[in-house]
Description:
- By secondary structure, the chain is an all-alpha fold.
- The protein is 72% helix and 1% strand.
- The protein has 14 helices and 2 strands, in the order ααααααααααααααββ.
- It has helices spanning 2-13, 23-42, 45-59, 66-90, 92-98, 111-132, 135-152, 160-182, 192-205, 214-220, 225-253, 257-276, 280-302, 308-311, and strands at 315-316, 327-328.
- The chain is globular.
Amino acid sequence: MDSGKNTSKRSRSNVKVTSVSHPFLSAAGKLLYHTQTLYLFIRSDIKTIIIPVTSFAIFGTPHVRVKHGLMGISWLILHLLLIDIDNQSLSMQEDMINKPWRPLPSGRVNPGTAELIARLLYPICMVISWLMGSLNLLYCSACFCLLVYIYDHLKLNSYWVTKNVVNGLGYMTLEMGTSLIVANGTIKSSLLPAILVSGSIIATTVPIQDLQDEAGDRAIGRYTMIMQFGHFGTRLSISLCLLMWSLSTLVLFQPPGLLSASYTTLGLYVAYRNFLLRTVSEDEKTYRIYNVSQLSFRIFTLVNFLPPDMASVFIHYPTSSKSIYPVLVS
């Protein structure tokens, strides 16, 4: 009996367990890997573009359907993939210093593949825009593709003036396109001033992003504001613009008291941090708070476009008013 048991144990110990890789699990693993790669391309844009632009489109539309909201976000992400993959395939040296976790410097994607994907995304963005909406959406996509091309391939991103202007125009284009989809093809003309001011704020304050990327910009010879005016002049300019927009938007859009106080406080705080706290780690924190302030701006300017039942907490509508904006209750 004992020898039989020992033989049985030995036979069981000699059995080799082999793992079988199911085709579904293998495909799921590849899909997860490539999804993460796409996420890494646009990771930096989540707080700077995706959340603010999506909020802008949703708050600017009186009644949003889930279908149109998801379509708008998808359109926005597709166009961000275009500029991110195109830009990152041409600025790998900078990313190796500033953002080594991105797909190209980390080795997840090779430059040749990234360049091919970027070339394909130009027509894909415009075709999908044509299929998703009206000619106006196609115009937004074509305008954005043109801005991406001149920004990356004609080197308009190498000089701070043209870089700032193209950033502002690109932001307005994305806000317009996303808003068109969320609103099912038609947006109010009174939304246009908010888009114009939003793009102008970006164009005049976006150099705040360059403060944390100075090492990479110098490595590739990009001529930013810091190169021309130094830290004092650049930070002074950004802080003054932040103060100007914090005050002027109060006059232009007359936000309710709580939103007004939050946006103004954030603007003053960002201006203070930007001018006085000058280490790379502090610049990164300042930039995160700056993005929160920009989200706050989009919310308070677009409270005007909410339906009366949703906006009744902030707004009362006068019986006779010629203004395109309702009167906001402080």
